[in-house]
Structure formats: C-alpha cells, structure tokens
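--- STAGE predict ---
source: upstream dedup step, 1 unique chain passed
mode: sequence only
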Amino acid sequence: MVRYDILQLLAAHPEEYVSGERISQQLNVTRAAIWKQIKALKIEGFEIEGQTKNGYRLMKMSLSLNEWAIQQALTTTCLGRTIYLENELSSTNVRAKELAHQGGVHGLTVVARYQSGGQGRLQRQWESPRGGLWMSVVLRPDLSLADASKITLAASVAIVDAIEELFQLRIGIKWPNDLVFNGQKLAGILGEVVGEWNAVQTLILGMGINANFPRECLSAPLNATTLFEILGYEVDLNILAAMILKHLEKEVISLENKTFEKLRLRWTERAVGLGGEVKIIQGEQIFQGVFKGISTDGALLLETEDGEKSFSAGEVQLRSKKSEYF
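--- STAGE serialize ---
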C-alpha cells in the first residue's frame, strides 16, 4: 500500500524532512497522491509535519491500532507476522476460526477496533468499545490436548508480563482467565479448539484488554477498569499488541518444550486469592475451601473439609467467599 510505503520512508529518516520530490521518485507516485496519503495518515493518528520547502517529517506514531505500526513493533518469529486488522467485527475469535478453516497459518492474528458481539467464558457477552485491544491468534502448537488446555494460563502470564514491562503495573490473575487490577477486571482470555484436536490441532486464543477508554464506556454493573483509568493517559495499542505477542510466543514455545513448571510458578506468583477461602461453582454444586494454586496439569486445587479437590476450567466459576469478586 502506497500509504504505508510513504510511512516506511518517513520512519527510516526520523530526524529529517523527506522532500515530496524524493518520495515521488522513490515510490513512483505523483505529488498530489503523496499529499492525499499524508492526509489519510494524519486521520489515522500519525503526526506528520509538512514544510513547503523541506517536505515531510514523521513526528509521532499513531496510538490507535494500525497494521503497519504493529508490524514495525513486532519481534516475534511467527505470531502476528500475518495480521488482519478490521475496523469492526462481531468477534475476532469467529473471524480467526474462519481463517483457520481456510488454512490460516500458525500465528495468524486478527485484531478489531470494535467488536459488536464479543464473548467471554460461559457464553457471556464481552463489551468491546473502541479504544480497546481485541485480538485473536490462530495457534497450531505441537501439544497434546491436555497441554493445549494450559495455553490460557500461558496467555495470562504473557499479558501481565507485557503490561508490567511497558507500564510497570502489577496485574493479578484470577483463575482461569481474568486479569484484574485492585479487584477490577482489566482483561480476559478465551481459548477455543477448532475441530477435533487430534486431527486439526488448532486453537483460537482470544484476548481482550480494556485500554484507551474511560470506565464509563462499560456497563455500570461490571466491576471493571481500563488502562486509561489506571494510568491517566492513552497507551500505544500497537506496541501493546506486539509486546503481548512476543511474550505469548515465548510461553507457547516453553509449553512445547515441556517446561510447564516454570510457567506454573510464575502464574502462582500473580494468582489472586491464593491461600484464601473461596467457593467453586460447578453447575448446581458449590464447593468451599482454601485456594491452593494449580496442579501440574493446570487444574485449580482446592483444600476442602473432604480433602484436596481439583477442577478444570470448563464450567467452573471461582468466587471469593465474601463477594462476587476478589
């Protein structure tokens, strides 16, 4: 795309102006076409300064989601190297499934600026206003079905590591797939197997991070927060996406190398409610006990009056003994 060819040229010379004539010659486009594309880039959020005699200079990258900007920030081998950015989707997971069925490669990533029908666990609606990071990755890892179930745990660690590296925020993990800050939900994860695992070995990993919008954009009953509320400023969604993909790729490779114990220990360090009294809701049954962590196969461990019990993520809900949220 000519627009991003121009952007690439400007980014390659960050300390100087690039003349319209030079851009025209290198990209074989007219000066009028260049002006039109520069205008479009400004609308996308890139700050570009133009001077009549000197040309154009890229002053600031866009904080809004942009395919080119994500690619520039990527340091991965596979994840995000094929990327689809849509202005609006019903669900990035649904779109990623479609692309997986069409032969989408390992690491293919779908990102949307807005989701009209995002879903969390147990078919719950996931509100996805503009300004958030709504992203799904097609994973075709070399894992058994049992080990594949640990990918959501790996994603939890990847996201908290990315947020801590970028913003020095310590985020807690609420088993199995919620990320919280001061007891309020900041992000969620949804893993879905595509087809029969033994035949297809494909998993769609959806991640939603409440980022560049105020808390008021979410329904009042939700006990949630956003990065904007926590930090007081908008973050670069492209760098955030690339950083999460970097950490996720590392965690998936670790799972493939059978090093789950390291992941389990790092997950446990961030676990919310660990050592406290909780209740597990499994259908009509309620189990109460002390949250002891997760087992070597990724199941939640609960110490009850009847001894230690383990629970897979499935239809299980984890609640503190006193309230709906930790």
